[in-house]
Amino acid sequence: MSSSSYPTPIIPETPSKTINSKLKLHFSSPPTGLCQAVLGKAVCGFFSAIVVIYTALTQNHKERNALQMWMASCAVVVAAVCLASWLSYSLIIAMAFVFHGILYYGAVLLAMVAVGLGVAGAIMYKQDRAGAKVE
After folding, report:
1. DSSP 62-82
2. Quick check: 42 pLDDT over 50?
3. What percent of the chain has pLDDT over 90?
4. Which of 38, 74, 69 is nearest to 55 (CA)?
5. Average of pLDDT values for 49-67?
6. Would you list the domain boundaries of the chain?
7. CB-based contacts of 58: which residues, under 8 Å, 6+ apart?
8. How far apart are CA 86 and CA 27, in angstroms?
9. Which residues, including other chains, have CB under 8 Å from residue 24's CB and lie 6 or more apart?
10. What contacts 28, CB < 8 A, 6 or more positions away?
11. Other CB atoms closer than 10 Å to residue 123's CB: what's the count?
């Protein structure tokens, strides 16, 4: 795919000049590959979520300590991302357990059917040979 197929991520405007300059430096140009596009979207999305929470905390209370509110916003987003990743992992492991059970018992059932067919074939062949004269 060409570099024009990946959109430039939306860079949030944070209260920090340092964070803003780093985001603009690294993510203002269009990404050249899929990994760079996903990383840019994730980083900018992360800081966008922090800005939304920070704005909600400080919109009616300008007298609050901006640093504490920014740190609290970061903590909330980090906790949410950690919870989401743990829930995703748990869901994948739970699905793997279910698929493991289906595959395991399917294999056991197939083995039992194979044994049954093998025994039935041996018994039927023995009965055929018992009724036939040995030449």
Report:
1. TTS-HHHHHHHHHHHHHHHHH
2. yes
3. 61
4. 69
5. 87
6. 3-95
7. 64, 66, 69
8. 28
9. 11
10. 8, 11
11. 10
Which pLDDT score is estimated for 22? Answer: 93
pLDDT of 78-131, one tens digit each? 999 999 999 999 999 888 988 999 999 999 999 999 999 999 998 888 777 776
Q: Residue 100 and residue 48: Cα distance in Å, rounded?
A: 39
In Å, how far are 91, 92, 97, 112 from 102, measured between CA atoms? 17, 15, 9, 15
Res 39 pLDDT > 80: yes
How far is residue 132's CA from residue 124's CA, in Å, rounded to a whole number? 12
Q: Tokens representing 81?
A: 């991302």
Query: Would you say 48 and 77 are in contact if contact means Cβ atoms under 8 Å apart?
Result: no
